[in-house]
Amino acid sequence: MANKKRSPKRSEQLQARKLDSKLVKIGNDKARLFVLSPGGSRLHPMEVGSTAVIEGRAASVPCPQCDGRLAVKDHSVDRQGKVALRRVKLRCVDCASPQSMWFRVAPPRPN
User: Where are the alpha helices (DSSP H) in 8-105?
Assistant: First the structure.
């Protein structure tokens, strides 16, 4: 029995599914890198000199899923013992994925 060629439409659909699958994998990899970067998790908070810059810094980071713009939804203080971390909840304007960034306000260091 001879191999049948796929119809052009079927071949295009297969290529589109493969591309979608690769894009999802890339998005997942970028999300994992985001968690490991400064501010991506409670374990790796981003250090800032003042609370005034926190929301601006958080909003300037692109969405780890789609590289879209993140909008600040909530900014709160999360205390564990003596350590107080600032948590900023964000939502992507394009893909609507929720994100969180963590900050620690550190006093300025002497020169």
Answer: 8-36, 54-60
